[in-house]
Amino acid sequence: MINFIRSTLHPLSFHAHDKRRPFFEGWYYKLVSASGAHRFAVIPGIFHGKDPSQDHAFIQIMDGRWKEVYFNKYPLDTFNYVPYQFDFTIGESRFTENGFRLNFDHPEIHARGEIRFGSTVPYPVTLLSPGIMGWYAWIPRMQCYHGVVSMDHSLEGSLVLQGEKISFNNGRGYAEKDWGTSFPSAWIWTQCNHFSQPGISLSASIAIIPWIRRAFPGFIVAFLYQGELYRFTTYTGAEVEDLVVTGRRINWTVCNRTHRLEMSIQSGEVAAIHAPTLEDMNGRVAESLDAAIHLRFSRIDTAKPRLLFEDSGSYAGLEVVGDIPRLLRMWITSGS
Question: What percent of the chain has pLDDT over 70?
Fold first, then answer.
C-alpha cells in the first residue's frame, strides 16, 4: 500500500509496485524540429506478459515524416530505474523528464544522440489530483492510467540517423506516458503545441473506460493558454457538447461552467506504432504526427460569450483507434 501511494504521487516514475500480469508502462517523447521538417516520437517502455517468458523492455521510434516505425526488444535485465523518479535506462539509452540519450541499433536504422528539454511545463500533481487522471489515479487496478510529463518545452540537441545529423535546436517537444494492463477498446487522442503564438498546448483524449462491470466514455482535456492550464475532464464535471467523427475529420467540443473549447482536427498520414496486448507488444496503433487542428476557446460565464483565442495548429499528434461507433453511442446515451 505504501508503494502504491508513493507511486501515485510520483506518476511519471516507473510503477514497480504493480505486479499484475499483463502489465505495460511506456513513456512518449514527441519531437518536432524548428523547421517542422523532422517529426519523431521516441517511445521507451517495459512489458510483463501473462507468460513471464514474454517479459522485455523496448524502445520504438516513429518517423512522422516518412511514416516508418522501428521497434527493438531488450532483455528485461537491461531496464534499470531510480525509484520514484523519472530516470531509467534501457541498454545504453537513458530517459528522464528533462531529456534523453539514445543509442538504438535496429536492422534498418542506427540512431544515436542526445536531446535536452528547456522550460518544461509539468502537469500539476497534488494529493487530491495527482496528475491529469485526477482522483481516478487513486483507483487501484484500472485498465490504463495516463500521465502528462510536460505540456510544452523547447528542444536542444540532435539525433544521428543512418549517418544524417538532425538538429532539434529551437524545436518544440511534448511528453506523456501510459501504464496498466492494456489500452482501452476505443479512444481518440490528440496533442498539439505548434500554434502561431508560443506557449500554447493542447492534450486531449476520450476513451471507453471499464468501470465495475460497466463502462463509460471518460475524457481528459488540458489546454495551456497564456501560462494557465484549463482543464475539461469527466472528474471535474465538464461536458462533451459535440463529438463527430467523419472520415479523417473529428469535430469535438467540450465545456465547463466558465469556458468552451472547440476542436476541429484533420488527420494526416499515419504510421503503425506497436502497442500492448494481453500477450505481447504486437498490437498496432495508427498514429499521425502531421494532423492539422483548429481551436476556438471562449469564455461563456458572461452575459455574452467572448472569444479568447482562435488559431490553427500544425504537426499535431492524432490517434483514432478501436470501436469508435461504440464510443460515440456511449457518449450520446451518457448525456455528457
Answer: 99
Handedness of CA 229, 230, 232, 236 (dihedral sign): positive
Q: Are 103 and 161 in contact (CB under 8 A)?
A: no
Report domain extents, the chain.
Answer: 2-334
Distance from C-alpha of 265 to C-alpha of 157, rounded to nearest angstrom? 30
Say what the pTM is: 0.96
Q: SS3 sequence, the chain?
A: CHHHHHHHCCCCCCCCCCCCCCEEEEEEEEEECCCCCCEEEEEEEEEECCCHHHCEEEEEEEECCCCEEEEEEECHHHEEECCCCCEEEECCEEEECCEEEEEEECCCCEEEEEEEEECCCCCCECCCCECCCHHHHHCCCCCEEEEEEEEEEEEEEEEEECCEEEECCCEEEEEEEEEECCCCCEEEEEEECCCCCCCCEEEEEEEEEEECCEEEEEEEEEEEECCEEEEEEHHHCCEEEEEEEECCEEEEEEECCCEEEEEEEECCCCEEEEECCCCCCCEEEEEEEEEEEEEEEEECCCCCCEEEEEEEEEEEEEEEEECHHHHHHHHHHHCC
Residue 26: is its pLDDT beyond 90? yes
